[in-house]
Amino acid sequence: MGKLYDGLDDRLRAFIARQPLFFVATAPLEGGHINVSPKGYRDTFAVIDDRTVAYLDMHGSGAETIAHLRQNGRITVMFCSFERTPKILRLYGTGRVVTPGSAEWPALVSFFPSDIPGARSIIVVDVHRIADSCGYGVPYMDFAGDREHLKDWSRRKSPEDFAAYRREKNTTSIDGLPALDPPTGS
């Protein structure tokens, strides 16, 4: 049976740290598309305190999570164990988008390795519900390693390339909601 937790204790933090993959779910207030995004790179997720988590949001072809958070803030983060011990952990909360250049950026980015290229924002989640469930239906899977494609792609981009990419692909969601502000300059 599932259990509710008052905060992210050491056992839950250790479980989170072992997971090489997590999922993020958001939705617009009305109509539109519900979004579920897989997120990898273990070092891109941080537990800030018992009720606050954050993850490094890498450049990607869409900006649904950002658009939904800017509209309504609702977010769920889910971790699944694919190892021997079955477990699913869900963090329900209110998320916000912190972008480079904001006053919060330096303190938040310090939670992540400095050698991860291609961050377009940090998603911070104020967690109001922490719940686990059995995970009995989740298959066993072996972790073979991180794909380096996104990091390699990001290392080849200049600041101007990223600005053009954000302008083309990340200013609105697929439903037309505002996402990242268009970059200024280039």
From TrEMBL:
SUPFAM superfamilies: FMN-binding split barrel. InterPro entries: Pyridox_Oxase_N, Split_barrel_FMN-bd. Residues 8-132 form the Pyridoxamine 5'-phosphate oxidase N-terminal domain. Gene3D superfamilies: Electron Transport, Fmn-binding Protein, Chain A (2.30.110.10). It holds the Pfam family PNPOx_N. This is Pyridoxamine 5'-phosphate oxidase-related FMN-binding protein.
